[in-house]
Amino acid sequence: MKKLSLCASTAVLALSVGVTASNPAWAQSEAPGPAATAVEEIIVTGSFVRGAAEQTALPVQVLGQQEIANQGTPSTVELIKSIPATAGVFGEANTYGAGRVEGQSNVNLRGLGPARTLVLLNGRRLPDSSGSTVAGSYIDVNMISPAAIGRVEVLKDGAAATYGSDAIGGVVNFITRTNMRGLEIGADYSNIKGSDGDWTARAIYGAGGEAWDGFAAVSYQHRSQLRSTDRAFATPPFSGQAQAKAAYLYNPQGGWSTAANPGTYIGGTALNANFLDPGCVPLGGELQISATQCLLRFADYANLVEEQNLYQGYAEFNYDFNADTRLHVEGLYGATEVFHIAQSPSYGPNQFPTGLVSPVPNQYFIPASNPGLRTLLALNPSVAAANPIAATTGVIAHPFFARPFGVGGNPLYGFAQENRRYAKEYRLAASLTGRFDRFGGIGWDVGATYGHSSYDSINPDFLVDRVELGYRGLASRAGAAPCDITQGTPGVGDCHYLNPFSTGVAANAITGQVNPQFAAAAALDPRVVNDPQVVQWLYGEDSQRTKTSNDLLVLDFVLNGELPLELWGGQVGWAGGYQYREATYKTRGLGFSNNDQFPCIDSVINGSTACAARNGPYSFYGNYPTFDLTQKTHAVFAELQVPVTDDIQVQLAIRHEDSSGGKTTNPKIAVRWQAAPWLALRGSAGSTFRAAPEVNLSPTQLNTSNIFVPQVGSYRAVEVFGNPDLEPETANTYSAGLIVNAGPFSATLDYWRFDFSDPITIVTGTQILDAIFPTGQPNRCAAPAYAGLVSRVTFSGACAPAAILRVRSGVMNGSPIKTDGIDLGVDYRLTDGPFGGRVNLGLDGSYTLNYEVSALEMDGVAVAPAYEAAGKLNYRLPSNSLPRLKGSAFAEWGRDGHNLRLTLRYIGPMDDQRAAIFTSPNNGQGATTRGQRIKSLVTADIVYRLDLPPDTTATLAVINVTDEDPPFARLDFSYDPSTANPLGRVIKLGVTKRF
Questions:
Q1: Where are the beta strands (DSSP E) in 14-139?
Q2: Contact (Cβ atoms closer than 8 angstroms) between residue 331 and residue 218
């Protein structure tokens, strides 16, 4: 049997067809130096038929090990974001860009959503991350050790006919190194201005004998904290009202909140009774925008990059029983620790105390006996005179304009609240492959894969009733004797006060500006200084803490071979098989986060479990209900590789899947025609699908999230419910392209299209509220057609924006989506270039022509109009950020152990679709178009690699050479984290040593 040199095969395919080998059993990879070896037959990503990869008709992009190294060995998230076919990728780790999944990263081909990209390791599935299963499943690619990777193959075509559910938008296949011999160690350090820098360390050891081989790889990655105040573009510094107003007018969406501290209080029931804590201006950390309102820039307390540690390990073992039978076993382990996710000093409230603890139900009431209030009025007679009810009875903390702590920081943490995330994953896979010689050489592959993913999310948040008890002087100290809330005396003995006023703030936590009234306030009553142990008690023992896990069991049986049918181009190849998948999703809350035991606001006080809104007892974050769900899937599939002639190859595939998420049958055809020695044409058409995850089929409440409500100017809770009537989402996919291979020049050009039906989507709270309260139009509270939609909103009074408490949303099959575009890849290579060196010039780009989203209906009325997503920011929309054009070009020169590469990267401009924020006088105190057009971004990277004796390689990389800031966008940190990063110029040093 003819053997193919793997190194030569990889080089030829990367230049011409653009594919290399991959399969659970036969996947091989390029390894530098003498470790490269030969393989007999290879299988292409997107096919289970054995044969030469040159026959493929599928658009597959390959990133080989040497290619990745020549780019400066980027991290996984950097590598994924650099692929032009991706869009809307998260992984930069800031809290507003990650959405409670800090430290994780996904793959999002075509901007279709990470749930629609199937990620494989050596051709086999990985468990979904348990970080965000309710909102949409994804694979956390940070768990895959870069040290173990030999290459990455990106199939940019729907592949459900081959791989099943989730491959609706494409497949990314990480393929590990092979035939590794000896020891290799390496380390990198990245210098980042304003940060302690990032560093990695890795070690790989491989060995083998006559019938066996294996290797193990371990790696460690550390990212250092980068505060928002370390980048002027993210949080422009200010120390006075004029500068604060300028910063606010520049970007009203730049991390500002009406829920402030010092805040606004109500000394009676009328709105004109509002008064502002007079500490706003003297403390200098907020912007006073009216006589009764300040703004807090909470973004000042957050991080652009969170400190995190990432541990990764991989090992595999191969044993050949004979020439035809091989055992393969592999194991993966990954763990992420994100320690100090800086948040606001406290959150603006989303939930409010009931009449059980508050004299004013659904409001936080602060009695006149509170020492913070009493001292505030004593030091500010004019405020007391204008608000006599405040001095005699007390005040209400304004539901939208006040929070417990703000400009002075959090007394318990010393600065800001700190969330934490802990993620772990392990995966074991084994396969036995062989051949039945008696049956014409039929190959067989039996495999089993088990993966487990767990996620621990810790979010400090105040318990609603305990905050109210603190305002009334009935709070306890953590670890001390509890206050008797029915018999205790406020502020005496074991009962303590919580002071939300500026009288308890010594200085501005950001600027250090001293509060001129603090010393006098403390002298009048030392109880104005908040006791950190009282603040600890307000959180509860575990804060808001939720643990989730995903388990995945996959059993595969595949047969392949050749039919006794020979056409003009050779014998027809075939493959077929069966797959069983069992996915389990579990979630539970700890302590007061256990929504079965503490579903209500008052559950902490009286243990009640009977309430209409089961959002838990916390002020800002909602609890996750307990789930233990399992989804079983049975699939059968078949495939033919038909060599019609020497020049025309046809691939036919069909797959049927049956699960609780639906039954589907999906065919596909792909054709490749070698029209001339230098020109090949290819095309495909088929249908693809994604089954509804079991958690989305549950009719119960799935979770509670928070959205910023423009009508209110603050965050409100959104309850998300499942839908047992969900159908699988389906898409018809089409592609057509050409391959040019003329000597040193090669190119690929492909047109692609996806037509979606019944996409699974979660209607956002913003869409529901925008439909009820359209900008510039009368509200629809009383419109009969909108009755169902209005019933999804809970108000504190009459139907009005200011009375919104929470919104009920859900999972549903949405409206059709159609998207198409063009991919271009160009490569030119010379073996005898300038100065006798090798020269490689390349271009890789993707242009989205259209991304049409049809109008979305809920409860019989439109909640979102039809829109074009291509070239738009798509803020808080399912389509995510989607620049029309994304690409890169590079020039590379190498000789005698030297390699120099210059890469230019381009991200096209986008329009911010939120028309209201550019016209409303409530956004920036006047109409402005700043940020309506998000500019394009061009960056340059230079990487120099030098081979040194003995067997050592040193790397110097300068990423973003010209230190470009990300383009301005009207978001929390004034840039879009899914398309750009805040790091600026990065200087990276690396060394690799082989033994």
A1: 38-39, 60-64, 118-121, 124-125
A2: no
pLDDT, averaged across the chain: 88
Tell me the two tokens of residue 797.
Answer: 């009074």
Residues 973/234, Cβ–Cβ less than 8 Å: yes
Measured distance CA(589)–CA(367) in Å, rounded: 34
Q: Is 657 helix (H, G, I), strand (E, B) or coil?
A: strand
3-state secondary structure 34-50: HHCCEECCECECCCCCC
The residue among 956, 945, 978 whose CA lies nearest residue 67 is 945
Say if CB 218 and CB 147 are below 8 A apart.
Answer: yes
Which burial class, exposed, middle or buried, applies to 944 when counting CB atoms under 10 A from its CB (0-12, 13-18, 19+)?
middle
Instruction: Report whether 679 contacts 690 (CB < 8 A).
Output: no
Dist CA 681 CA 254 (whole Å): 49
Per-residue model confidence (pLDDT) at position 199? 94
φ, ψ dihedrals at 283, nearest 5°: -80, -20
Of residues 171, 165, 138, 170, the one with CA closest to residue 730: 165
Examine the pLDDT at 567 and tell me if it is beyond 60.
yes
| Phi, psi of 978, rounded to the nearest 5 degrees | -85, -15
Per-residue pLDDT for 374 more than 90?
yes
In SS3 terms, 238-294 reads as CCCHHHHHHHHHHCCCCCEECCCCCCEEECCCCHHHEEECCCHHHHCCEEEEECCEE
What phi, psi does 779 have (nearest 5°)?
A: -70, 165
Rg over alpha carbons for the chain, rounded to the nearest Å, is: 30
Q: pLDDT tens, 232-276?
A: 999 998 888 888 888 998 899 999 998 999 999 998 766 567 899
The H or E element that residue 963 is part of is none
**pLDDT digits 0-9 by tens, 717-728:** 788 888 999 999
Q: Give CA 2 to chain center in angstroms.
A: 45
Give the number of other Cβ atoms within 10 Å of residue 210's Cβ: 6
Task: Please give the helix or strand (H or E) that residue 993 lies within, else none.
Answer: strand 986-994
Taking a C-beta distance cutoff of 8 angstroms, is the pair 153, 45 a contact? yes
Both structure tokens of 501: 């006023």
Given a contact cutoff of 8 angstroms between Cβ atoms, the answer to whether 156 and 59 are in contact is yes
Q: Which of 348, 340, 27, 311 is nearest to 179 (CA)?
A: 27
| C-alpha span between 81 and 90 (Å, rounded) | 9
Q: What is the pLDDT of residues 923-944, one digit of tens each?
A: 544 557 889 999 999 999 999 9
Instruction: Give the pLDDT band (50/70/90) at residue 909.
Output: very high
The first and second tokens of residue 525, run together, are 């009553």
Give the torsion through C-alpha atoms of 919, 920, 926, 927, to 10 deg.
0
Please give the Cα distance from 163 to 170 (Å, whole number): 10
pLDDT, residue 27, reads 32
CA distance 401 to 385: 22
Identify the DSSP state of 439: G
CA atoms within 13 A on the CB side of 181: 10
| CB-side neighbour CA atoms (13 Å) of 466 | 24
Which of 829, 644, 659, 820 has the alpha carbon at shortest distance from 727?
659
Rounded to a whole number, what is the largest CA-CA distance in the chain? 101
- Going by C-alpha positions, the residue among 61, 87, 60, 154 that lies closest to residue 908 is 87
- Residue holding tokens 């470790």? 35
Name the phi and psi angles at 95, rounded to 5. Answer: -65, -30
The answer to whether 939 touches 980, Cβ cutoff 8 Å, is no
Higher-pLDDT residue of 26, 319: 319
- Per DSSP, helices labelled H in 574-620 are 603-606
In this prediction the pTM is: 0.89
In this structure, how many other beta carbons lie within 10 angstroms of the beta carbon of residue 756?
25
Instruction: Report the relative pairing of strands 714-721 and 804-813 from DSSP bridges.
Output: parallel
